[in-house]
Write a structure and sequence with these properties.
This protein is of the alpha/beta class. 22% of the residues lie in helices and 27% in strands. The radius of gyration is 17 Å and the shape is globular.
Amino acid sequence: MTMPRKIFTIAQFSDCHLFADKSVKHFGANVWQNLIQVLTDIAGRDNIDCAIFTGDLTQDHSELSYQYFVEAVVEAKFNMPVYFLAGNHDDQEMLGKYLTAPNFQTNNIISDDFWQVQLIDSKSATPSGLVSEQTLHGLAQRIDKNKFQLLMMHHHPINIGYYIDKHGLLNQQAFWQAIKQLNNPNMNIKAIACGHVHRASQFSKDQVDVYTCPATSVQFGDTKETMASLLPSYRLLYLNRNGTIASEVITP
């Protein structure tokens, strides 16, 4: 008989902003090399159950950038599945067309013995995010009330205090109202993890933890013109069987 795992470990990486030219730099960083560095580090760890990319694969919207992303993941030789979400820069059709190598998974629900992870589409027609009423309704229908819940999305659902907030979630109030209703009375939704902000941080709202993921490309400063770092980073999320989450940020 297989014993349930004590910890389900997720490697979240985000915002690689690739170009059709691997040598092009974004805010001074070679984003292709930064992505390779992150994927190599993830692949070298033997405790990761799955990797989840939370969007903004491309910067120049080129088909080559999607192909290069797939090339990077394939060359990393992952021994775990890779799930993905669209960011505001991404095209859903291009993701579906190119992210088809064996490691890539297209389903938006990941189930563990004690946890259910749901991938939430927040892409809109603008750089800002929007979680539709239909998506929120579907979230309620899909929740396994016998498991703890982690939601993952591209856009941040809470203001974090610098210029990126103008491109955050447009319907924050409706989103959190839905989360409150889903958590009454059992508090199944323990945390939300997102990308988009190019910075690692942690917040809490309505007893739900919110983790933002650093970028594989560059880390933003407080203004649009300043970068906090040109080094790539990603986040590890450790989902414990008692419903708690531990996390650490890795800069390879």
